[in-house]
Amino acid sequence: MNSEHILPLLVALPLGAGFLIPLVGLFWERLVGILAVLTTALLVVFAFGRIGADTVVYFVGGWPPPFGINLVGDALSGFFHLIIAIISFLVVIYSLAYMKRYTSGAKYYSLFMLMLAGMNGVVASGDLFNMFVFLEVTAISSYGLVAFGVEHEELEASFKYLVLGSVASSFILFGIALLYSITGTLNLAHNAQIIERGVPGTMLSFIAALFIMGFGLKTALIPFHAWLPDAHPSAPAPISAMLSGLIIKVLGIYCIIRLFFFVVGFSQSYSFVLILLGILSMVGGAILAIGQDDFKRLLAYSSISQIGYIIFGIGLGTPLGVIGGLFHLLNHAFFKSLLFLCSGAVEYATGTRDLRQLGGLWRKMPVTSATCSIASLSICGIPPLGGFFSKLIIVIAAVKAYDTLGPIAYLYAAITVFVSFLTIIYFVKLQKMALFGELPEKLKKVREVPVPMWSVLIILAVFCIAFGVAFPWFINVIINPAQEVLFEKGAYIIQVLESI
What we know:
Blueprint: H1 3-27, H2 31-49, E1 56-59, E2 70-73, H3 75-98, H4 105-124, H5 128-146, H6 152-183, H7 188-197, H8 201-219, H9 228-234, H10 237-264, H11 268-290, H12 295-315, H13 319-350, H14 366-379, H15 386-400, H16 402-405, H17 408-435, H18 451-469, H19 471-486, H20 489-497
Antiparallel strand pairs: 1-2
Helix pairs in contact: 1-2, 1-4, 2-3, 3-4, 3-10, 3-13, 3-18, 3-19, 4-5, 5-6, 5-10, 6-8, 6-9, 7-10, 7-20, 8-10, 9-10, 9-12, 10-12, 10-13, 11-12, 11-17, 12-13, 12-17, 13-14, 13-15, 13-18, 13-19, 14-17, 14-18, 15-17, 15-18
């Protein structure tokens, strides 16, 4: 199969499955989970087929850009498609056992497939309109999945997520409208070409501010983070893993990268704003996580802190900083998905997320405890796990940014190291309260979760180890090509507009 034909399939397969699953569920409820697994497995195969492939452009309906809709596949989109495919596949397998406690499995898998189609569409879109449409498909599906338990807590969290998500979408749509008003096109490459020729600087800065506020809300950067600490704990554990592992990265970080490096243009002023937001999120998220006694709420605040690392690395605007940011994004997708799935396993077995009611679970749940410990060590930056190397690269990139930032670069590097110590504090607290210590009397009969759940935990833990042990391979094969694309804006414009 030609590489460009993979792009529409990455969207069409889960989109078709999203509409097929409810129909199948009317006749055979058990088959819907199998269909979801098969769909995500195919996406993994297609995503691996994009590794190392050249940049390709697919014209929807045969209409060339800038007038027609086009999908673009390059090393950056391939990097994100691969993460989306692997995490989604593993989360669906985990859901086979975990979601049995809920009714309407067909509705769950249908919304899941639509959410997956939306994320793949955002990453593949070559124009602003369809990027926004797929962004909304993802967001609306995730609103329903956060509220899937239909309890008071879930509905309240989903409503807050919906309101703030709508505010974010309004900022983004307003920014797109203004950009269209000064360029007369929605195609990303065509926009970039026109902006390079010269547009009003004040208007472009205002559009950039709208995008930062909109996508900052989507990715839950401080001070745009209010929805996340409620949405993550309230959602079913598989959806918490998707929210933290994928959605905030695709709807927020990917769009920021794509628009600022390829369209608006990366400048020192935008770099300063992203660095500032990254530092605020790093420090604020870590401090707020320390005081949490709810397993999933602690992980939610931790996500805010770790996203700060990614935005900070990318905000430096240097090749090494971008490598560190993308590598930490890869690590975070896997170790945070693992941590949320571990929290789901603990809640599944014990019936509570309250750390004060837990303890000694390593005796009863050895697989969950071991994998949770591996993920915790990685997120804390303990060698030789992947989290150590991605944080180290970000610290080195901050130090090397002295030539452009001056002495404050050393302060930034010191803050990133300091936040790692804060991360150790709250994960030691989590380990001590949940996994070690005395086993409460009421948890004496607790046992390990079903095979589909603990097998996924092991696979994710293996990835966390592999990202550290074989980090040069991952950087050379996956991260470096994605980074190089960001600094080849001219090549992107030529490949899209002259590929007719």
